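User: What would this chain look like folded?
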Amino acid sequence: MLLMAGALLAGQIVRAGGSGLNVIVVVNQNSTNSVQLGNEYCAQRGVPPQNVLRLTNWFGGAINWSPADFQANLRDPLLAMVAGRGLTRQAQFVVLSMDIPYRVTDGSNEDSTTAALFYGFKTNTASPAPGYPSCSLPDNSSNSYAYSELDFAEAPPNTADTNSFLALMLTDTNLAAAEATLDRGVAADFSRPVQPVYLEKTDDSARNVRFVEFDNAIFENQVIGNDALSRIQSDQTQFTNLFGLQTGLANFSLETNEFVPGALADNLTSFGGYILDPNYQTPILAFLEAGATGSYGTIVEPCNYTQKFPDPVDYFYQSRGFSAAEAYYQSVLNPFEGLFVGEPLAAPFARPGSGVWNAPTNGAVLGGQSILSLNFTAAATNLPLGRVDLFVDGTFFQTLTNLAPAAGNVLSVNLNGSVVNYTNPVNATLATLATGLAGALNQQSSATEVLAFAVGDRIELQSQEIYVPGTNVTVSSTAAIGAGPLLTAGLDVARPAFLDTVATGYQVVSVTNEPEVGDWLEVTVMKTNGMVVTLGVTNTTAGTTIATLALDLVNLINANPALQAPDGLFVSDFNNFDPLIQFYVYARTPGWPASQILATWTTSANLQATPMGTSPLADNVGDLRPRNHLYVTTGVDSLAVNFAWDTTQVPDGYHQLTAVAYEGTSVATQTHVTRNVRIQNTGLTATLVSLPAGANASLAQQLQFTVAANTTNVSTIKLFGTGGCLGVVSNQATATFGVSAAYLGLGQHPFYALVTDSSGHRYQTATVSYNVVLITLTLGGTPLALTSSALPGRYDLQFATNLLTGFQTVASVVSTNSLVQWPLTTTGAAGFYRVRWNP
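Assistant: Here's the prediction, encoded as structure tokens.
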């Protein structure tokens, strides 16, 4: 095998739901797979080299570590890196690049590493379930970011002890599988998939408990025109070309092409997060290997609390444009025992705008006050641009403009002819604007018959009129400048009329206590046509359980002819939590009007049943009311930026300027434009020369960098590359640095030097880059030949009969292809061949 390097520079910068500028990539320096995968992530996602953190002291495996080891090896170095490298204003995502432990355990409590980075290590202080110490919901484990529909920077979890990060582990049992997950995540961006999402209610009653959340997720997506979600009753998991799957099974198999890029898929089961542990259940890596971009599973027995697993509303968040990490973390209320895996930035439904630099020109030399002139255009009128930030060499430098909702702007909503006006107050944010407008709408709810609920930058509207179809409830919105200096506050309605539900109304019934002879259960049903049906059962046998008695009543209900018509009801989802029995009573027809069947449950004195009194089959009334959405925004459709930049605030020398415009919604989709410039405000200059020449180097060799300043009064010379500062020399006008290519790992690596003179002047050299790649060498074929994979360049075939006397070049070839080959003639004597790359 021959190792060598080739040149390939920066990959694309993704511009949605966060970008590579906002990611910290963590690699385990003691794992070549971790380093290589991290390098590939940086290349594909445009992660600046200073955003890479190398863990150098962890040798304890990839499954468990203690809270002390987690803090000493990951959390504390991460926090120090973010603060020390000036990344606090931009670091939101963390990618853990395989071969890093995924479980933090102190012997009594077990949390995932991703959750511990999100909001700290949580201890199970609540009363656990008998025999299951991890089955609790500690108060401090609630995730305040969940269901917020806000930019993560504005809504980090309120129980985090330190900085909070949206952390995902990019991993698998082998490097190639992890690389495939990365590739699919990148391919997902802006793809706007139309493939189905299946929300699967299985026959496993302990694991299908998320089914009560399905209708809301389907409804939310349908309101914004996404009909991909559907609920299915099945134990099947073998599908093709899905955009998502939520199931409740412990063991299953998946097709290799189950999912399209960007898909989120998971199962509610105990040990899905046992990705490398011995496991008798299917681990969540199976979803990634079947094509999903993200998945989630618990790393300890959680019991079937729905709060510990993703709510299917995550697919609605994706449909809005949020990234995979944002959608997933917003959908789990108590994630402390859950491991998030996959590629965090994938944003299939994001819609970036466009932008151009007017000045300076590419490669311009700047000094003093220089004008930065740019123009950005929104992707759509309902996705205005509200803020522009300047990043210098990948690090946040300054906000160039920030268009908050202007005080005095007036937002108006017309609900069936009733107009509600709301004047934007001073210092409003998207969240406070939505809350204020929702309050104004609710003040008029007696006239409009509409309830308003503020959720982040969105207002959910629900009609209160049971028998008025949603199509008859019209809504429109406008925004006016009012007394404001300019119009930046916006308001958009999802659809011109409310949407009717596809959900079926239900009532959850509980019966408890053990029956004695003579005890009875009874239900009286009043159908919507006024017909009354009364059914009851009486216990006549000693030792009868409450489950048997309740099931007898359920069977009577389901067999009654008067209740089998479309205006009837039926019972399903019977659960025995001895001595508590629970079951669901469903209307036979979807919709809010059909749910108005009234049921009254009565019992003998020794038994108890809830609900008490008479009530409709509308426990899920929020899923039954006709629904619509309003979205508040801030910004303008066409955003011009003219900014006087003081170039003396950065070192002289070579820099890349990146202007990032943000969509003026909670999604905050990014639009990037870049310029390369050179700054010269002082007489200080410096050069950086690298060896070997060109852009390639062998993995086994030492890279050499020589820096020379044009003055002798030099204070320090620093060399920077992937992972930050790679070396410092003091009080010398020239410096030579050696860097091991093996330390950097396979992948792309930029290098530059920063020279500081004794007066405090600084100069940043031009960047040079190497790409370290692996070249394979094989011997075989007829006639016998030596074959090597190759990059363009010259290759020398060398031969020796004795390794002590050295190799001699016997043939050379210049390759322009990916393979180079030399026919060999055998002599019967022992010999040694090697290939030398000679750029």
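The mean pLDDT is 93. If you want, I can go into more detail on any region.
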